[in-house]
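<purpose> Linking amino acid order to shape
<body> The protein record starts here
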Amino acid sequence: MSNLNILNQQGADTGAPAAIEESWLVRDKGEQAVKDAVVAFLAAQRSGTACTKNRATLSSRSQAKPWRQKGTGRARSGGKSSPIWRGGAVAFGPTPRDYSKSVNKKVLKLALQRSFTDRLDAGDVIVVDDLSFATPKTKEMNAFLKAINAGNDALVLVDEYTDNVDLAARNLQQVLVLKATSVNTYLMLLFKKIVITKAALAKLGERLA
């Protein structure tokens, strides 16, 4: 078991460390699991809606032969929908498809454990006792991140959403407020710092254990 110092919103040490259970951490395996989880997440973001019309679906062009097969001196042609004609169909073009990949639940859990462990070992995880703002203003979030030395590129993990905190981060492009029960491997690796409340750490621990 290891401990992390818990800070308050002003950046001061509360003196009550947060316990990190060894069952949450994985160091000797999981690199391939992390890759598989990230690739699967990014693949699932693709819409897969690219589509072109082939000769069977192109209805704007006549299906009649433009001239007879023989005797004109010109190359034979089956119709104006041919891909070699201007305005014709597309040969071997893209069609709607599903890019999502299936990843085993155990692999996803291993990937999350390994990614959290790497961020923890790198000193990128900051634990705070609680997070609440009096007003839903961006300056509140900026002041909080500055006080705890999290910079302006951070994933803020909470146990439950609150309107003021969520709205305070909305205008910051590199700050995301997310429930600990929703974080995935990709997001765990995307930001420079991971800021997590004490309650959210407990929720995340339930997923990692």
